């Protein structure tokens, strides 16, 4: 089913489009668009981002989504001006992280294409995606400590799981920025590419994923993410059930038949 309402909404802080992948499922593209403030993540922008990502997740014609900013900034963090006068109770009532939790529930893969600053909530938003393609100019950091707070959208958890305690402690306790290459070596970033090519590279990766059998892609993503929550015993059990479940799909039969017949598989997404 292809529900396209997410493409026609009147967004104020993001740009949304879809890219045709010629034969494969499409790629959804969500671009943060508050360039004057380095894409600072205010509540309105996050509301729109989550709506657009969920729209592509529901759209039967989309296989993968890319989330990006602009050359200078993926996002320089939560909008400090929006939080500057807020107290604890107001922040609690805003409950903005409930919206962030919805990103974790997306079934289809989301790739962050990062150039320039990915700081604070910006780094956390990139880490909420399934992979990060970074321009060689990208700078990652969790500078909240310099504002008298700590990361609030998963930074202490996702960063630590991605790059380990030693590096995460350094980033979170000093608030310093680290370059793309260093973050690649630490395990946060999938690939570092030339500053002019980061979006193209992310779109190419998305196209490749969109050309794979959809249900297998979704269960593969789900199984990998489960590894963060489960013990090895429960994780293996979960993986095994998903593996067996895929034997019920038409695409499994097509994939294996095509291999035996030495031809290209034609996926149905069923
Ligand atoms: C609001 C911001 C902003 C932010 C930049 N701007 N970051 N506005 N919130 N997070 C605005 C600036 O006020 C300025 O607008 C314009 O963007 C350009 O920024 P400059 O500082 O002039 O640019 P530059 O000198 O190039 O410095 C870039 C920078 C710096 C190093 C990235 O902007 C910076 O340190 N930003 C804050 C980074 C940060 O602390 N992020 C964490 C936020 S807390 P005007 O109108 O003044 O010209 C957070 C908590 C997460 O993310 C919780 C979960 C959501």
Folded structure, characterized:
- The chain is α/β, with parallel strands linked by helices.
- It has 13 helices and 10 strands.
- The strands form 2 sheets. A 6-stranded mixed sheet has the order 1-2-3-5-7-10, sandwiched between helices. A 4-stranded mixed sheet has the order 4-6-8-9.
- It is globular, with a radius of gyration of 19 Å.
- The site of hexanoyl-coenzyme A has 21 residues, from helix 3, strand 6 and helix 6.
What topology emerges from the helices and strands here?
Blueprint: H1 5-8, E1 14-21, E2 24-32, H2 43-58, E3 62-68, E4 73-75, H3 80-83, H4 88-94, H5 97-104, E5 110-114, E6 117-119, H6 121-128, E7 131-135, E8 139-141, H7 155-163, H8 165-174, E9 177-179, H9 180-186, E10 191-193, H10 198-210, H11 214-226, H12 232-246, H13 250-260
Parallel strand pairs: 2-3, 3-5, 4-6, 5-7, 6-8, 7-10
Antiparallel strand pairs: 1-2, 8-9
Helix pairs in contact: 2-5, 7-8, 11-12
Bound molecules: hexanoyl-coenzyme A.
């Amino acid at each position: 089913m292809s529900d396209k309402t997410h493409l026609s909404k009147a967004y104020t802080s993001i740009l949304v489009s879809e890219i045709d992948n010629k034969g494969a499922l499409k790629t959804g593209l969500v671009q943060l668009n508050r360039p004057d403030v380095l894409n600072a993540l205010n509540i309105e922008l996050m509301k729109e981002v989550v709506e657009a990502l969920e729209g592509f997740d529901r759209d039967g014609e989309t296989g993968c989504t890319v989330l990006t900013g602009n050359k200078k900034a993926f996002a320089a963090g939560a909008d400090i001006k929006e939080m500057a006068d807020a107290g604890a109770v107001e922040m609690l009532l805003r409950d903005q992280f409930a919206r962030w939790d919805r990103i974790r529930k997306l079934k289809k893969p989301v790739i962050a294409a990062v150039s320039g600053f990915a700081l604070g909530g910006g780094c956390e938003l990139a880490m909420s995606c399934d992979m990060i393609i970074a321009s060689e100019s990208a700078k990652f950091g969790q500078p909240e400590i310099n504002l008298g707070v700590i990361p609030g959208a998963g930074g202490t958890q996702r960063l630590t799981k991605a790059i380990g305690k030693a590096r995460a402690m350094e980033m979170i306790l000093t608030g310093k920025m680290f370059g793309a290459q260093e973050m690649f070596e630490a395990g946060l970033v999938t690939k570092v590419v030339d500053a002019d090519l980061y979006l193209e590279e992310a779109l190419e990766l998305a196209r490749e994923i969109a050309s794979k059998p959809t249900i297998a892609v979704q269960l593969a993503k789900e199984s990998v993410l489960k590894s963060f929550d489960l013990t090895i015993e429960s994780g293996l059990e979960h993986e095994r059930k998903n593996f067996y479940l895929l034997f019920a799909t038409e695409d499994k039969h097509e994939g294996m038949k095509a291999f035996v017949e030495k031809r290209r598989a034609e996926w149905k997404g069923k």
